[in-house]
Design a protein that fits this description.
288 residues; alpha/beta; Nitrilase/N-carbamoyl-D-aminoacid amidohydrolase; six-stranded mixed sheet; 16 strands; 28% helix
Length: 288
């Protein structure tokens, strides 16, 4: 099987897990009825809750998580691969994981992935984020071989760390994933460029379901969920921030073709690094 029907679910998650499950359920069923056999939801599908107190009052351990338990039943009922882009799960008191989960058409959770890179930034519009104060960063780069395709797992801010994706591609991943809740500011500046770049430099499909719009907890996300082919072309995009879903058929043979045309993954050579320090008159001289 070289062809796969894939779908991105775009959401505007609230602080209510029950509401978000209902929205997700409807969109996933819609995508499946349109022929999708792999469906991806965005980062923090379960809830977006900026309040630390509110977050820890709402979330549960993985085994007790309402969203993940619902996803297991839903994937089995629809007979699809259901990729929960991420949701917050409780690890211990006042510490959580930003965790993705992949469910098989039989309803089994075949893999999880904890977001490695924490979004600790200060943006020039006044936004300040410190994910490391709430979440424990993951320590494992993971791909999943399901037989018909190999999938690389990542979440949002991971997108800015290209070595992660190169490692997955070199291990055989044909599809790289980047479910996200990109801020509106950073999304407008970098979202399209980063996704297309990760696809081009790895000769892989990139599938990125996103959060979009003005959220109940006050944050603003960019939307524009999309699927990019191994040549860097955007095959499907939800153009804007509104919730919904989009589907597209992809041909995994395109991965082999792209990597044959530009075999950079196999052409890489080891090299040394050195710094040349200029001192004396040269360093102090004026530039013409």
């Amino acid at each position: 099987m070289t062809r796969l029907n894939v779908a991105c679910i775009q959401m505007r998650s609230t602080t209510s897990i029950e509401e978000n499950i209902e929205v997700m359920d409807g969109f996933v069923r819609g995508a499946a009825s349109d022929g999708a056999n792999y469906v991806q939801t965005p980062e923090m599908t379960g809830l977006l809750q900026r309040s630390r107190k509110g977050l820890f009052e709402a979330i549960q351990s993985e085994e007790n998580d309402k969203l993940l338990n619902h996803a297991a039943k839903l994937s089995a009922k629809l007979g699809i691969w259901l990729h929960i882009g991420s949701t917050a799960v409780k690890l211990e008191k006042e510490l959580a994981a930003n965790r993705a989960a992949l469910f098989s058409p039989q309803g089994n959770c075949v893999a999880t992935y904890d977001k490695i890179h924490m979004f600790d930034v200060d943006l020039d519009n006044g936004e300040s984020w410190r994910e490391s104060k709430v979440y424990r960063g993951g320590e494992v780069c993971r791909i999943v071989d399901v037989g018909i395709f190999k999938l690389g797992l990542s979440i949002c801010y991971d997108l800015r760390f290209p070595n992660l994706y190169q490692l997955q591609a070199k291990a055989g991943a044909e599809i790289l994933t980047a479910p996200a809740a990109f801020t509106r500011q950073t999304g407008q500046a970098h979202w399209h460029t980063l996704l297309r770049t990760r696809a081009i430099e790895n000769g892989a499909y990139v599938i990125a379901a996103a959060q979009g719009g003005d959220h109940e907890d006050g944050r603003e996300t960019f939307g524009h969920s999309m699927v990019v082919n191994p040549w860097g072309e955007v095959l499907m995009e939800i153009d804007g921030e509104e919730p919904g879903y989009g589907t597209i058929e992809i041909d995994l043979d395109e991965v082999l073709k792209a990597r044959a045309k530009i075999p950079n993954l196999s052409n890489e050579r080891p090299y040394k690094f050195e710094e040349v320090k200029v001192s004396g008159d040269e360093a102090a001289g004026e530039v013409a």
